[in-house]
Write the structure tokens for this entry.
Amino acid sequence: MILTFQSLCIGSFGLIGLFLLYAIAKGSPSLRSFIITRVLLTVPMVWILVTVVFLFMRVLPGDPIKSRMKPGTDPTKIARIREQLGLDDPIYVQYVNYLTGMVRGDLGVSIVGEERPVAEQIAERLPATIELVIPSALLMLIFGISSGAYAANKHKKPPDVVIRLGAVFIYSIPIFWMGLMLQLVFSRRLGWLPVAGRISPDIPLDRHTNILLIDSVFTDQGVQAVLVFLLVFVGLPLSRIWGGVVRRYLPDHPSSEWLEVWAGRIHMVVILALVFLISLTLRPNWTALENVLKHLVLPMVTLSLALVGVFVRLTRANMIETLQEDYIIAARARGVPERTVVYVHALRNTFIPILTLIGLQVAILFAGAVLTETTFSWPGMGLMLRDGIALRDYPRVQGGVAAFAVLIAITTMLMDILYAFIDPRIRY
Amino acid sequence: MTAEHSEPTSVAHRSTRLGAQGEPLMRIRDLHVEYATRRGPLSAVDNLSLDIYRGEILGLVGESGCGKSTLGKALMRMIQPPGQITRGQLIFDGVDLMTLPETEMRKVRGARISMIFQDPMTSLNPVQRIDEHIIEAIRVHQPEISRREARRRAVELIERLGIGAKRLEDYPHQLSGGMRQRVMIGLALALKADIIIADEATTSLDVIVEAKFLDLLRELRDELNLTIILITHNIGIVAELADRVVVMYAGRVAEVADVDTLFHYPKHPYTQGLLKSVPNIDLDGDELYRMPGSPPNLIDPPGGCRFHPRCPQAKPICAQREPALAAVSPAEGEPTPHSEHLVHCWLYQEHE
């Protein structure tokens, strides 16, 4: 087994690490120290968060033992279980135990329901959440930014009014209600899409990563994983540095200009070749893929629509402002085509505030995922957290929130660093 | 770099330049520009006709809101809604720009007619490097030029303007105001445009940088035979640099003359007032002349000559009919002007 959820995690952490190293190597000394501070700062950030969650869970009314016992159970029995689970310890002892569990990596053991290490449960549930959140985020960004930019370009014309009002309308719909309505229309009335779940139970599929989209495409997972690895870690960097290599070692060679011109194309050729190679070895499970996609549509649309309004409005507002800037008028006066002016010059400047918002919205995206998963019985982290809260299963909730905290901390950190990269004016 | 050019150009030099006038490079005919407002159309440029000759520096002066900038933008058809060129011809190099479709007009902008903007601090894209700006400006019009060749030209251009090639890799915020202004000139010159419109291009610069900038403009004009339209409300700059001056008032041309004639023998009462309101260190003790009234509301401009409510020499006819922009001959004892002296005033025209 090469392609598993663990290897995916290691791979993505590896990519993040590579990006950070690249940023540290390329950036100015001040940028370097900013990145290092920023990375180190995520540790106390996560710590504060898990502490707050710990305290909130203790303050919350309700009791994990009573929630699973029949009323009228013998108090001595309850006291015994309480002692077994360590719930009668002073709160600071519980806190230290909890932090120990975090550092040990198993995040403690559930005390209600399935009594398994929380880390194990998360590893099972996280792929489902990722499968929901990442496509939703992409859909949200593409849809939000493009329609916002389009509206700005048509400022005060009918398309602008429609998009603006539509964004407010969608934004003001509660997320679960929107989910229910979509279920009602597309599943119950029209019968086009399944109501809930990730995949129909009668469809056989090996779940080696438990991200079902990946599982149904990469069924025979040995060769492709190696090729994907090659593409991401060798092909892309190599094709990227090609132009630099030519310029450096063949500065006056007559063919160097030709080579450099081709560098950009070779970049694409390498990527296409690798993609082609990978696709040759693919044996996708089409039935499963179709089924998974159908299950994904409604939750994905629900989650992305719930958050898209903010992006539409922010992009539009920023874009309208940017389009008034002197440098946009100056670009037009230089004869730059209108499309380039709007969708390259203006959009690139508009992107800077949007990027900050992405970092902030990740948290809301996960919160939305909890609601969406509940509505669509999507067996992810959100559903796990909801059950944990209902049962007052302290370790489960604490562990789940800690996992979210880490994810959010990493994304915000990446956004902050990317921000420094995209906007040359920012120097730390 | 500009030491040998720092003394003012001699009158003789200017007059030879004006003597060599041939066919106008651009003929503006009956140009009307209106802005739609809630209270009706505002006529920012009204029935304006003007010839611009190759190689001249044409000063365009007037109070704020007299339509100078609007005219500058109109020459490139860059009037943004709610503004609109409602009528007129812009015959440039034998072609009426008004008849060109937008795609063809785009090929003129930046390549044949280019513009240096008011504020060099905000007229460069903050997330685009200087070289990217210049390379883009070149390749937008000549896509067959490779990036590398375009970059080589950018280096040449920027060194010609006195900026080290290393600065090409900088972002706009890393350059000083003077450098940015030179980059703006570089962008305007990247494709050897025939006409360069400098719209209040020195307003945001300090006087020393401004003087350097003006020297550079003159030097480039002499070298490349550029035509420069200098839009400014700074009379001093015009006196220093321009060959010919157009005085605008309320969207119309009040007076056109070569710079010496205009400054020494102004004919239009508005020009006379304007020149008297310029602070001058030689006039000790005298209070600065203040023209009565303020420029008219262009949504409902006064009939006849638009200057008549403020004119000290107004006659009954002035409120009734608009005068023509007609040539005047010099009065007794005045030298012959170097170019045609046109005045838009009833004082110099026959009427019944």
Remarks:
- The mean pLDDT of chain B is 82.
- Chain B is about 30% helix and 20% strand.
- The longest strand of chain B covers residues 24-37.
